[in-house]
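Risk register update: the risk that structure generation would not scale has been downgraded. Supporting records follow, first protein first.
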Amino acid sequence: MGGARAGTDRTDGTAPEDRSLLRAGEKVLLVDAKKRRYLLTLRVDAAFHTHVGIVAHNDLIGAHEGATVFGSTGRRFLVVRPTLAEMVLKMPRGAQVIYPKDLAAILMEADIAPGVRVLEAGVGSGALSMALLRAGASVVGYELREDFANRAHNNVVAMVGEGADYRVELRDVYEGIEERGLDRIVLDLPEPWRVIPRAEVALRSGGIICAYLPTINQTAQFRHALEESAFGMAATLEVLHRTWHVEDRSVRPDHRMVGHTGFLTTARLLRPEELGSRPGGSVGWTPPAAPTAAAPPPVTGDDGAPGTGEGDDGRPDDGPRDGIDGVAAADPVEERWPRGDGLG
């Protein structure tokens, strides 16, 4: 039987690349015995200095991810690649980043998926940009400050790579949105209600707007503006993140938690009813045509001759008949109840 040998690539017979090996230029996370974490970029012949010794980069390059390495004083360090959550908390930043717990909620609430076209306004240090790109979205960012835009671009390249479908423009989203037919607009701005009229034009019908705000007063004002707009299906939430201490029989919530960081509000752009539900289709509701009433069949007698509308006894057949002996039939309602004279 044909087939690739175990441990080889299926197409050309070569051994598969060992993705656990660390390479120069990669970001890695060093974790010491006290679980302190240090983010660094591997470079040939470089060294990382700590208060407990020096770690040579050459000792890390070519090592397996998840391995233990030793510093110059014999102290142990665990070396791993940083996750997106760890990168967000450890990367260089100027503006306050959106916390990982909120990044995850934004991806779900805004329904970010591969190929989705997203406008992100207020890119800050690039944490949200990285999350959007990792989910497969095509992202254009609007940022007012050039230093923030440059830092965001550098952080994104360090985490996602040069080939990311990503660009940052120095623009004020309050002044207008150049793109059309967007699927999502994600805002990390102090006054997102000012963007709503622009978003109504830039988003496609059914598109989602998402705003991340630190205070409930801002959130309430944004919700009020949404009610006066073409957006509907609005919802607001916040995420509270609590870890647990699990050690032998000591199982309890940790004393510290990441509580309130921001409110997340989403809404969908609805198509006005007067424009119709489809291109070139009818506008409004069209009542169905009333069915044509059929003519009643002619009345005939027992012999097939046209009937006279009278009973067998010649009386008009216009209602309930009397009993067989000519006595009026009893009222069925009265017969259901017992007689009041004790004889029932």
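Supporting record for the second protein:
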Amino acid sequence: MIIDCHCHAGKGDKITAPWNTVGDLGPYLRRARAAGIDRTIVFPVFHSNYAVANRELAAIVQRYRPRLIGFAFVHTGRDAGRIFEMVKQAVSWGFRGIKVHGFEAMPTREVCEVARAFHLPLLVDVGGQGEVMEMCAPQYRDVNFIVPHLGSFAGDWKAHQKVVDLIVRHPNVYTDTSSVRHYDYIVQAVKRGGPRKVLFGSDGPWLHPGVELHKIKLLGLPAAAEAMILGGNILRLLKSAGTKKGAAWAGAESSSATHLGTNHDQDGSVPELAEYPM
């Protein structure tokens, strides 16, 4: 199963740029289907009220169920004091993770503790400031953090390098490959962090999911390692998300992912990885 772990959906209310205007899933879903992508994690575009945006996203996820998996978006400053209730509502809609964006506000103890309480992965766009994870990850070892774009949508190579180092040193920090242009940093992430720490993402609907998927295919990895990146890893992180019933959500689809994970959980490595081109 191939899962795109990074896509945006719904309407924003600022209408000054694509990412705060609309995430139109029509073209994205056609392209993802043609590329062989089975499931997609979605979160709202930028919005001035994420309670409203998350509710809209819930309707979109319901419309395309089981094709889409929702993550709740929160603003850790503006939503301070109500994040628990926002996430509780999102979990009732079947959402399986939380997103925060450093462009707006960095993670706080409140959001990390809510992620812990609901057993949810926390996707943190650090906006090039990977050092923030040096503070969060050791404080919340039981929370899995996903740093998208290898730390920088803007393509900051220093941020990419920082996130590669983070996934090597912190057992609860992962990264996704969405929109990464400097390909050798994807190679570094897989070689140094291991395929267990890297997730496939496209940054749809604005980037073509088939093009982003091809980046992973071009690594020429062993089948087991490729399967981890393309879906096994995110299934493992979602397995218990939301409640103890979360394990049942993945169902039979997660059995292969769990099997893959147990083969390589000790160091995230695949013995023959060095023999492949990348």
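The domain at 3-275 is CATH 3.20.20.140 (TIM Barrel). On this basis the risk owner (M.S.) recommends closing the item.
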